[in-house]
Amino acid sequence: MxxxxxxxxxxxxxxxxFMGSVIVTPLYPLYQxxxxxxxxxxxxxxxxxxxxNVLALLVFGQISDQIGRKRVTFPALAMAAMSALVxxxxxxxxxxxxxxxxxxxxxxxxxxxxxxxLAERYGAQRQSTATxxxxxxxLIGIAVGPLLGGLLAQxxxxxxxxxxxxxxGLLALVALATARAPDAEVRSVAAWRELRVRxxxxxxxxxxxxxxxxxxxxxxxxxxGGLYFALIPTVVIRDLxxxxxxxxxxxxxxxxxxxxLVVVLARGLRxxxxxxxxxxxxxxxxxxxxxxxxxxxxxxxxxxxxxxxxAMALGYRGSLQVVNQIAPAERRAEVVSTYLIACFxxxxxxxxxxxxxxxxxxxxxxxxxxxxxxxxLSIAALxxxxxxxxxxxxxxxxPRRTVGAH
Length: 406
Description:
The chain is mostly helical and 406 residues long. It has 2 domains: 1-183, Up-down Bundle (Growth Hormone, Chain: A); 202-406, MFS general substrate transporter like domains (Growth Hormone, Chain: A, Up-down Bundle), CATH 1.20.1250. 78% of the residues lie in helices and 0% in strands. Helix 3 (39-60) packs antiparallel against helix 13 (332-360), helix 9 (208-238) runs parallel beside helix 11 (271-295) and helix 11 (271-295) packs antiparallel against helix 14 (363-394). The longest helix is centred in the last third of the chain and has 32 residues, at 363-394. It starts with a helix and ends in a 12-residue tail after the last helix.
């Protein structure tokens, strides 16, 4: 199979995984009405997905390197179908927790496997293109999933069933396309009992200072994404008085689409420039989200989403590339895994905090506290990164790559 057909097939794996993680986003208010759970429970349902991400990263991250991409991809696609079936037949809140945990495992497995598979198909000379392709596939899934879920829930019958039936059909198409893609020749074990699944995380002591800024950037970028994927549908209904669930899906679609476009259009930016620009743009993004809630303004929320999409794309892409630069080649997997854990924690922990504060105080106060925390962390990361950059410039013995200057 030539790359012109293999690469889209492999990219569709990543798209399908992330689509499954967010197709439920505009449906959360419907589930709240049906099962009667609180804002805290909603954030916990969202956050349990991150538990699946981290488990996959720690336990299953190395498996496809040992047994081949396809032997990991097809079971993971089957698990994605299982997650959809759990949501399809959900009878109470416990089913939602189970569905989110399963799709979290799927995303953790397929994002790593698909990214590595794309890198192999592009070849050693086109790794930056492979990175852009993987990130774009990720963001397309994030954009299309909520749009599809929202439109079907609002304008088609069976709003809590049809989105998952359609998703099951899409998974079948992805599996058929993947079956024709050539596997990588990476198998290093002859039997399942020989698999190495020990977690590999950590940062070399001499790289910790340089690692801090991109790790915080990943944390705050994913925190903003978590706010949109978990709570923006509730904000749209409660604060903007818009009961059409397709609108929430369209807002998240805007976020993912803008992020995907920025990843492609700004691929020539140096990693350091992309990361610092993403940090700077997070400030107006979170401020505008709070203003939109206070003013009950859809136009302001749309503007906030545009800023958020650009900030997330630049912050994530830039910080990941900076981490790749500072990581020693022999420990790159460990350092990148540690960075991704920071991202996953950022995706869950602040959102849980917003849920707790919303229940204890006022939704607007909770959002203002969230915005303030993101702003403080962003400014701190910017200041720390510039300090490290100046120190690297002043010290000829200090490797420039330690601060991702190139």
